[in-house]
Amino acid sequence: MAFIYDEPSHTFSEYLLLPGYSSAEHTPNNVSLKTPLARYKKGESSKLSINVPLTSAVMQAVSNDTLAIALAQEGGISFIFGSQPIESQAEMVRRVKKHKAGFVTSDSNVRPEDTLADVLALRAKTDHSTMAVTEDGSPNGKLLGLVTSRDYRLSRTPKTTPVKDFMTPFKDLIVGDETTTLPEANDLIWEHKLNQLPIIDKAGNLLYLIFRKDYDTNKDNPLELLDDRKRYVCGAGINTRDYEDRVPALIEAGVDALVIDSSEGYSEWQARTLAWVRDTYGDDVIIGAGNVVDEEGFRFLAEAGADFVKVGIGGGSICITREQKGIGRGQATAVIEVAKARQKYFEETGIYIPICSDGGIVYDYHITLALAMGADFVMLGRYFARFDESPSNKVHIGNSYMKEYWGEGSARARNWQRYDMGGDSKLSFEEGVDSYVPYAGALKDNVQLSLSKIRSTMCNCGALSIAELQDKAKLTLVSSTSIVEGGAHDVTLRNADMDGSNHL
């Protein structure tokens, strides 16, 4: 007969953290949120770690290149949605990898044979006073010098004067090379009192310009997530159908991590996909799998070769899998059981496999609960869909601005390839809805606020790292009455429009 759990499954809202001893060193500034993304052996380190425990969901309405750049600047990683043609997804990855905050491709360029008249005309067109002088006048030609407004005087320099006669020549320039990081560039700018620093390749071709005014770009992003070539880290979603074509294209584009996007991960199709990736690329490619909700599912994917395992079925705000199919589990219970299975697997094999809590996050504190319960990081959809950087439209409804948000299992997304039914089978019913979420502004402002709450809570628990939180955390189930007690009650609020003010 069917196996029936004696205890009900629980959601995050049914738990609270108990405070632990916090010393004088337990301040938010001392908290590290760095966490592993990929499996590693005991005594070694993960091939890829992220600086904050946030990843964005593999969804059309959430993860494109714009959001991937913004999240990498804050220390997290996006998984660009895979329900699009292979080449367009690969191009999004390429755009992320090419983007360098503070590194500007020059769009005001002249040749040495051009005249002051040409310089003035270009300045009137672009409003840029700094121009690169390249051999062919292109943005990436061989750098011969720079022209700024300090290099000529309109009252004394004839407009027919060639640029080569008044430019600052290359031999007098301070330049950086391909290995120069933004902090190093800023140091050169300040040390030599420069307004701009050209970055060139080994052949002397111009790559970028870094301007003094962009110093704050680096200063404001101390946790930005970069690869070993100082490019933003970027992930991408794949499915279990066209992976033999999609994976090579994404790897060629420079993707740092892959994840199988599926409604349910305990399947032969995921094992086949993982086996192909391992047979083709060995351990050189980081690939996560899921989703699962119990020990059996975790074991299956761990033994199949997943670098990380996503946990959660039916807990997303736009997911209706539970009401359509009756499949799923309360997110808190799922995370707790899979975390125990992960620890058991680690003790048996010496291999640590990070787990990702995917779904069920409504409030900021739910993220901290998920981490305390054993998740190494969380994956968020609705949270990121609200921001300027997400790819969906901002619309005005009533007196509020909203962002469009739809599930990958909705008719709008038509992402049936994420449902592992084999062959050319297609889903005949929806498992997601088409909806709106309240517009929340810029990603940076919201993420920093959420992270400040997480750090503060960890200090209350006496923890300065996620691993320490998982070791020290004490959690308690709460009754429905105590949930009511936990919010404002028995008062009349001055601001009547409080609904949702604490929602992500």
What does this structure look like?
By secondary structure, this protein is α/β, with parallel strands linked by helices. 30% of the residues lie in helices and 18% in strands. The chain has helices at residues 65-74, 86-98, 116-126, 182-191, 215-219, 243-253, 268-281, 295-304, 321-325, 331-349, 364-372, 382-385, 443-460, 466-472, 480-485; strands at 15-18, 35-36, 40-41, 49-50, 54-56, 77-80, 109-110, 131-134, 143-147, 168-169, 196-200, 206-211, 235-238, 257-260, 287-292, 308-311, 351-352, 355-358, 377-380, 394-397, 400-406, 434-438, 474-477. The strands form seven sheets. The chain has an eight-stranded parallel barrel with strand order 5-6-13-14-15-16-18-19, surrounded by seven helices. The chain is elongated. The model is unreliable at 498-502 (pLDDT under 50).
Defining key terms:
504 residues, alpha/beta, TIM Barrel, CBS-domain, 4-stranded mixed β-sheet, 23 strands, disordered C terminus, oxidoreductase, CBS_dom, CBS domain, EC 1.1.1.205
Topology of this protein?
Blueprint: E1 15-18, E2 35-36, E3 40-41, E4 49-50, E5 54-56, H1 65-74, E6 77-80, H2 86-98, E7 109-110, H3 116-126, E8 131-134, E9 143-147, E10 168-169, H4 182-191, E11 196-200, E12 206-211, H5 215-219, E13 235-238, H6 243-253, E14 257-260, H7 268-281, E15 287-292, H8 295-304, E16 308-311, H9 321-325, H10 331-349, E17 351-352, E18 355-358, H11 364-372, E19 377-380, H12 382-385, E20 394-397, E21 400-406, E22 434-438, H13 443-460, H14 466-472, E23 474-477, H15 480-485
Parallel strand pairs: 5-6, 5-19, 6-13, 7-8, 13-14, 14-15, 15-16, 16-18, 18-19
Antiparallel strand pairs: 1-23, 2-4, 3-17, 8-9, 9-10, 11-12, 20-21, 21-22
Helix pairs in contact: 1-2, 1-13, 2-6, 8-10, 11-13
